[in-house]
Amino acid sequence: MVFKLFSDDVKTYQIVIIAQLRQPQIKTLIYQMTKALLYTIATAALLFASAGIHSVQANDEKLAFVYELVRHGARAPIIEEPKGWFQVKLGLLTATGMRQRNLLGSYNRQRYVEREGLLDEVYNPSQLYIQSTGVDRTIQSTYSELLGMYPPTNTQQLKKSLSEGSISDKAMPPMKIRGSVGLEGTLKATLPLYLDSYVNVPVYSFLAKNTPDDDIQPGGCTYALTYNSDHWNKVATYAGISDFIMPILREPVGKAFGYTRAEIDALTFVNIYMLSDVLLAENMEGDTPRYNFTSEQWHYIREAQKIVLLEPISDFARELWITKQFRKPMQAFHQRVNEILAQSNNNDTLRYMLYSAHDVQVANVLHWLQPVDFEVIDVPYASNFHFELSYNETCLQTETPNKYQCFSVKVLYNNEPIHLGTCLDANQKAGRHTKTCIYTDFIAHIDSLSFKGDLAAECERPWNSEPSPFRKSHQISG
Ligand SMILES: *[C@@H]1O[C@H](CO)[C@@H](O)[C@H](O)[C@H]1NC(C)=O
Ligand SMILES: *[C@@H]1O[C@H](CO)[C@@H](O)[C@H](O)[C@H]1NC(C)=O
Ligand SMILES: *[C@@H]1O[C@H](CO)[C@@H](O)[C@H](O)[C@H]1NC(C)=O
């Protein structure tokens, strides 16, 4: 019996059942397995190296702070999936999804703990602020990513963060496991802790709806929430776009789900969006395709997702909501810059902010930022932003009139650099041969897109109520 380990390298990498082998063969087997392992390690190293290609810091550049905004990993569709392919319930994270976010966490560890030394080796609660939307798949995703960032290495570490969690009341409630009474004996024998009190790293998940702190969900800004919920399922919202896309997708998507003529004719753009969501989820898990879509059809299946994330939010609603989303990260950037300028050597300060969210946050931030020459079709599972604040030590040490010029912000979307117009223009004017933002230009860019009036007052009212007196202070480009 022979298993192929690597189908693309037939000669060497085969594992043969050990029981059938004599000594010399075992030697060969070990050799082959070692080689296979080395190949795997080399491949992984290569992947990491190429993934990290945009992150190489010059010697005098030091990383100071990172803001990460990320979509949950692969999940089951949000409507009933007719083939019953998924082993988890509607909208829940799949094993593939956990793996995606876990790998992202390992990557974060490699980059921000091991290479840059931004964060302590062992989870230090003062260095991270972690917030998840209160949805199963984002909470599961956050745990998966944090387990990649801080893999459990010894019980001391787990006990420490467990007590942090319960003392500060910022952890998830302990997990309940069905049938855990029966399992307890087995678990106790192998684990020093009860499984149902296992909390590795606290994840903020308890924020009440519509509090000033709820920046990440539209619920934190009633204007944005009501605008979105009143528009997302209306035919008129997608009028122009659907006139163009529906003729391309109606037939093939309807046929993929075995719909009748009448059902196909009745499909709306939002129906197509829901069905496309099923198709993308199945595709991600490697399910057999239900239909052979052309590449053009597949393109619009993906794009339909983005359209439903962006169209039902007006520019003004988006401006309010994303301004709110950015205010705490912006404060954190500023605080960190001031710490460095004050030459603070306290390591127990905020270095990493992680917002674990959905495609709607990621898509709207991407749109709001107005990146230069950057087209996206959709926002795949686990899509992520990393806003990296760095400073130039040489620059800080030499006399400079404006030390803020020594700080820069790099914006990465799925590890691709994002370029912002304000920064490109300023760099060109100053003769700087870089596309990365000087800190002050980054601030200027965000500022130019942000709402300038009374954010709390504007967010508080539903979109279709009387305009508030605060409205007149609103200026888009300030
Ligand atoms: C798609 O095309 C492949 C290759 O031609 C074929 O084997 C498969 O049955 C087709 N699938 C469907 C759902 O038509
Ligand atoms: C902070 O961390 C750096 C790098 O790990 C270390 O050299 C330094 O001693 C730490 N400072 C304090 C005050 O603990
Ligand atoms: C850091 O600052 C120094 C002095 O201003 C400058 O010569 C050097 O090129 C800068 N390094 C980077 C990577 O920008």
Automatic annotation (TrEMBL):
The lineage of its organism: Eukaryota, Sar, Alveolata, Ciliophora, Intramacronucleata. GO terms for molecular function: phosphatase activity. This is Uncharacterized protein. It comes from Halteria grandinella. It holds the Pfam family His_Phos_2. PROSITE patterns: HIS_ACID_PHOSPHAT_1 (PS00616). Keywords: Hydrolase, Membrane, Transmembrane, Transmembrane helix. Belongs to the histidine acid phosphatase family. The chain crosses the membrane at residues 36-56.
